[in-house]
């Protein structure tokens, strides 16, 4: 291909990269524009520190902490499931599994990410919740535990794929040196490979956490719509994304303060996931730089 063709391709790739940046800035701008109108009526401090959320009730309260607690609760339950299972799978595929099994397991794990989240939601409601009620009769029909457990399997491919790539990127001379000192395969995996790939593994966990924070359909179907400031996983809760859906499908006037709460909540969720994604990117960059220095 001639120089002119290469220049056209480079320009197209550069425009594509800048397009993603422009879309992100546009989303932030829209959220901020409408959120400013909300914060002109409701103090920011009251919004951040308030412990009650009832903008649609007669006694209106605009404290976002109940929504954030519900969002964090389901996301942490998901991490409790996905992190140990994902790390175990990653270590096995990277250090122990034969090539044929690895080629079969990776697409199977990636398939979990392709399942529509509405399917996960109905699975949590009609299968996981009745199963939990069989073990814990006091658990409510809508609860945080069921969607959190199912969400853990949804984010599992994020942790396994990135963590395995990080572990496989560890230089082989580190493994050979550990074997030469008499270490077993498990000792090499846990004491050499895993610490060397720590930045990449941590980045995968943070990225999975941010994905769980923004999940909508699973919690909308199985977690309920009661904004509670609680970390009890057996009761119904409401997440930030669930509230946005609830209000968007209602009959609230677009000029009302109740409607503007959508953008205030959306802005909070956007900033939280944006910070986590950037932290994940920084850790991955640090891991790559560390691998280059070791090599």
Fold and architecture overview:
This protein is an all-alpha fold and 295 residues long. It folds into 2 domains: 1-40; 44-294, MetI-like (MetI-like fold, Orthogonal Bundle). The chain contains 13 helices and no strands. The protein has helices at 3-39, 44-49, 65-96, 99-114, 117-135, 145-154, 156-168, 172-180, 185-196, 198-213, 217-222, 240-248, 257-294. Helix 3 (65-96) packs across helix 7, helix 5 crosses helix 6 and helix 7 runs antiparallel to helix 10 (198-213). It is globular. The mean pLDDT is 87.
Please report the total strand number as a whole number.
0
**If you average the pLDDT, what whole number results?**
87
Provide the domain count: 2
Tell me what the CATH architecture of the largest domain is. Orthogonal Bundle
β-strand percent reads under 5%
Secondary-structure-based class equals mainly alpha
**What is the N-to-C order of secondary-structure elements (H for helix, E for strand)?**
HHHHHHHHHHHHH
- Give the end-to-end Cα distance, rounded to a whole number of Å: 33 Å
Rg from alpha-carbon coordinates = 23 Å
The name CATH uses for the topology of the largest domain is MetI-like fold
How much helix, percentage-wise, in residues?
over 70%
Which stretches are low in confidence, meaning pLDDT under 50 for 5 or more residues running? none
Helix-strand layout with pairing:
Layout: H1 3-39, H2 44-49, H3 65-96, H4 99-114, H5 117-135, H6 145-154, H7 156-168, H8 172-180, H9 185-196, H10 198-213, H11 217-222, H12 240-248, H13 257-294
Helix pairs in contact: 1-13, 3-6, 3-7, 3-10, 4-7, 5-6, 7-10, 8-9, 10-13, 12-13
